[in-house]
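Anyone up for a design puzzle?
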């Protein structure tokens, strides 16, 4: 598959973690996030939603979307740690992916910043 024009805007890097059953040294079963993809190119975008119709103090509401390769299998609930171009990291949790031929778009909810 040729590299899409959209992928040329992927300046961020992500690590994807998925909840999996694990057994510890005491033979106790727990769930833990296991690294599924490492150092994958992506783009995390932010859109400010219009909230000006409220009667109280205006609230800023942002919507976040992750763009990445369609070859990755991202599942709803996956924990994604995004490293931005400036070195800051942001943790988000995946919603249901919308795959296209050239990329996929995933609505995400914030994890470590407000």
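Challenge accepted. My sequence:
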């Amino acid at each position: 598959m040729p590299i899409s024009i959209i992928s040329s805007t992927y300046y961020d890097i992500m690590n994807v973690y998925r909840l999996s059953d694990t057994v510890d040294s005491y033979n106790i079963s727990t769930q833990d996030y296991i690294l599924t993809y490492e150092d994958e190119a992506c783009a995390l975008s932010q859109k400010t939603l219009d909230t000006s119709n409220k009667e109280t103090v205006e609230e800023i509401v942002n919507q976040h979307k992750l763009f990445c390769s369609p070859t990755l299998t991202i599942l709803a609930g996956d924990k994604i740690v995004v490293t931005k171009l400036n070195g800051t990291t942001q943790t988000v949790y995946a919603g249901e992916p919308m795959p296209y031929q050239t990329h996929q778009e995933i609505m995400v909810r914030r994890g470590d910043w407000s």
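A detail worth pointing out: The beta strands are 12-23, 29-49, 61-68, 79-83, 89-99, 104-110.
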